[in-house]
Write a structure and sequence with these properties.
heterodimer, A: OB fold (Dihydrolipoamide Acetyltransferase, E2P), B: Peroxisomal Thiolase, Chain A, domain 1, ten-stranded mixed beta sheet, 18% strand, binds zinc ion
């Protein structure tokens, strides 16, 4: 397959945040990949929620992560099931186990590679995509 | 304990329609028709219904009382979550009856997809902070999400598309001659494998149908059921719940590696067998929630019909076909029969235990029904022939 993975359609997503998730998206705006870490016991959790499921603490930290990870699973979306998807195919939803954030898996995309190059276990490097509404999203490319 | 203390005494349903084709009937109208039919089947006046049990958002009990003329309501409750609760709603009704809260409890489910197409249901979801984490990646419909689970199943267990295809083909074969099923065109492995992918590794035939309809069952005490018109179908038991490691599952995707490969049913299945005093080897026929083919395989593993990683070989062996050791989805299931949020599975299990199913499994005495792998709770139900 020589088709290249593109970014998913913008039109089907509008960012909503709360005080627990906003720091992730604010960091993304600054092109900084982070994940929610408990300030008490150090356990990671994603998406960010009000309590640490390990110790019930509400203290959180937002460490700088290296921006690399491993592809845990992926799909290739090839068919438009709503009109907004036309012209934005194929795209690759991806589950990324983030380096230096054990237990934190990010739902993101792999872009810019040939579909045939996608493999579970592939190494990934984060990049950033700024949408027309100013929201910045992480998306990954195949790495070393 | 609810074990064997209640029974399904009535079963009612609307016709099944392809998506949107039930219009201009309203959703409440379909639900009302199913309830009236279930009461008539039991030989009971609608006015004797005093409880309503739901799942997946449920319906408005006060509106149903108003339009159906139900004089007094003593129980009105719903399992949280989505399609995972279908089988468990019968357990909810049973619990109400055993506790003495109500005498005749209706369990009803249905859908009408004129306005909301389930295939892209996430498009209609609230723009919530939690949902942003999957919506940003273009996960528009449940098929996209279950594709991510299936891809990992294939990687870790070596499953093939032929295994998913065996589930789809079994459903179609059961649907072919079934009078209620919507899909009648033959499906073989060549046709399955040549279907264009929608979201790798899933193709059209891996997805359930999108259809309209409503189904209701009437749950009462086993003793009371023996006085009614139909042969009672005993509620052997029912459980619902799940583990934190599954949790919001497809909307979360942070399941630990082992649970990522399951259907989220492991603790529900364990508790169901303990509650009912039966094991997987005792089940004669199973109605396994089939929104997506790979999740049927995962459920067969979670319910102990085969070991984790062996479900693909199990379905490919023909074990799930009508002549096999565990016939499943004998009405064509949701893949080829109709999709009524799990209620078709309850309906078919009731028919099997009455001995009146179109594809009756000879001598079947115990039937398993599962609710849909989704955000917890998931649920299970075992019905027994009386
Ligand atoms: Zn903690």
């Amino acid at each position: 397959m020589s088709e290249i993975a593109v970014s998913p359609p913008e039109a089907l997503f509008t960012l909503a945040t709360d005080r627990w998730t906003a720091p992730f998206w604010e960091a993304a705006r600054q092109r900084r990949l982070t994940a929610c870490r408990c300030g008490n016991c150090g356990a990671f959790r994603m998406p960010p929620t009000p309590f640490c499921p390990e110790c019930r603490s509400q203290e959180v930290e937002w460490p700088d992560l290296p921006g690399t990870g491993t592809l845990f699973s992926f799909s290739v979306v090839r068919r438009a099931i709503t009109p907004e998807m036309e012209g934005h195919l194929p795209y690759v939803p991806a589950l990324v186990d983030l380096d230096q954030a054990p237990g934190a898996r990010l739902i993101s995309n792999v872009v810019g590679c040939r579909l045939g190059e996608l493999r579970i276990g592939a190494r990934l490097v984060v990049g950033w995509r700024e949408r027309s509404d100013g929201v910045v999203l992480p998306e990954f490319r195949l790495g070393e | 304990m609810i074990r064997r203390k209640t029974a399904i005494a009535g079963l009612g349903a609307t016709p099944y329609w392809k998506r949107g084709q039930s219009a201009p009937r309203t959703m409440n109208e379909l639900v009302g028709q199913a309830i009236i039919a279930a009461c008539a089947d039991a030989g009971l006046e609608v006015t004797e219904v005093d409880g309503l049990a739901y799942y997946s958002g449920g319906f408005d009990s006060s509106y149903l009382m108003e339009t159906l003329g139900i004089p007094e309501l003593r129980f009105s409750a719903m399992l949280t979550g989505s399609g995972g609760g279908s089988a468990g709603a019968v357990g909810l009704a049973a619990a109400a009856v055993v506790a003495g809260l109500a005498k005749h409890v209706i369990v009803v489910g249905g859908n009408q997809q004129g306005e909301v197409r389930f295939g892209s249901i996430t498009k209609s979801y609230d723009r919530t902070p939690a949902n942003a984490f999957f919506e940003a990646a273009g996960l528009i419909g449940p098929g996209h999400m279950f594709a991510l689970l299936a891809q990992r199943q294939m990687h870790d267990y070596g499953y093939t598309r032929e295994m998913f295809g065996a589930v789809a083909i079994n459903a179609r074969e059961n649907a072919m001659e079934h009078p209620l099923a919507l899909m009648k065109k033959p499906l073989d492995m060549d046709l399955y494998l040549s279907a264009p992918p929608i979201a790798d590794p899933l193709c059209l035939y891996d997805f359930c149908l999108e259809s309209d309809g409503a189904i209701a069952v009437l749950v009462t005490s086993t003793e009371r059921a023996r006085d009614l018109r139909r042969k009672p179908v005993i509620v052997q038991g029912s459980t619902h719940g799940g583990e934190r490691g599954w949790g919001r599952s497809l909307y979360w995707m942070n399941m630990p590696a082992g649970q990522f490969l399951s259907s989220g049913h492991r603790s529900v299945a364990r508790d169901l067998y303990a509650q009912t005093g039966v094991g997987p080897e005792d089940i004669d026929v199973a109605q396994i929630y089939d929104h997506f083919t790979p999740q049927v395989i995962a459920q067969l593993e979670d319910y102990g019909f085969c070991k984790p990683g062996e479900g693909g070989g199990f379905v490919l062996s023909g074990a799930i076909r009508r002549g096999g050791s565990l016939p499943i989805n004998t009405d064509g299931g949701q893949l080829s029969g109709a999709y009524v949020w799990g209620m078709t599975h309850i309906r078919e299990a009731v028919e099997q235990m009455r001995g009146t199913a179109h594809h009756q499994i000879a001598g079947a005495e115990l039937a398993l029904v599962t609710g849909g792998p989704s955000n917890a709770p998931m649920s299970g139900l075992i019905l027994a022939e009386s």
